[in-house]
Amino acid sequence: MKLVFATHNKNKFAEVKSMLPKHIELLSLKDIGCNEDIAETADTIEGNAILKANYVRNKYGINCFADDTGLEVKSINNEPGVFSARYAGDSNNSKANMEKLLKNLKGKEDRSARFKTAIALNMEREEIMFLGICEGKITKEARGNSGFGYDPVFQPKGFTTTFAEMTLQQKSEIGHRGKAMRQLIDYLSQ
């Protein structure tokens, strides 16, 4: 089975590919000749995932899934949410995004947060949504060198380490994307 994962993010592609069973051939946007950035203009995480999956399916005619992930921090009105990748501006600069988040949390007691991943599957024109949520909190400083995005400042509930201090396998087992991916994999295995 061939499936396109609608992302240009190499780290995310590698993380997802490592979770899929070997009988699923995962293709990237580059593999199908899609070099354009697919606009994420929806006002929800779920909406952005749907936009990307439908774009690839409609333009290239290939079964596709797309994800969108957002970090929601309770004490700052669930920011950055749908704007997680562009929180500090359109450059998608992870370091700047983390710095802005930590600045906005200065003096806040409640640092509870959650990562939410929505995966939209568009297969044979059937659209299905899978959601994965990981509860946790934002640390006071960045820790760790693994992962990407907000991983150095997100500490999952029940752990003393951030996502960036975990191996890819550990993160996949407990993380938001891993939870949503397992739902997708279960569906594809039926």
TrEMBL record:
Homodimer. InterPro entries: dITP/XTP_pyrophosphatase, ITPase-like_fam, RdgB/HAM1. It catalyses: ITP + H2O = IMP + diphosphate + H(+); XTP + H2O = XMP + diphosphate + H(+); dITP + H2O = dIMP + diphosphate + H(+). The keyword Ribonucleoprotein does not apply. The active site is at 68 (proton acceptor). Keywords: Hydrolase, Magnesium, Metal-binding, Nucleotide metabolism, Nucleotide-binding. Belongs to the HAM1 NTPase family. Gene3D superfamilies: 3.90.950.10. The lineage of its organism: Bacteria, Pseudomonadati, Bacteroidota, Flavobacteriia, Flavobacteriales. This is dITP/XTP pyrophosphatase. Pyrophosphatase that catalyzes the hydrolysis of nucleoside triphosphates to their monophosphate derivatives, with a high preference for the non-canonical purine nucleotides XTP (xanthosine triphosphate), dITP (deoxyinosine triphosphate) and ITP. Seems to function as a house-cleaning enzyme that removes non-canonical purine nucleotides from the nucleotide pool, thus preventing their incorporation into DNA/RNA and avoiding chromosomal lesions. Pfam families: Ham1p_like. Binds 1 Mg(2+) ion per subunit. Its EC number is 3.6.1.66. Mg(2+) binds at residue 68. Substrate binds at residues 7-12, 69, 148-151, 171, 176-177. Its cofactor is Mg(2+).
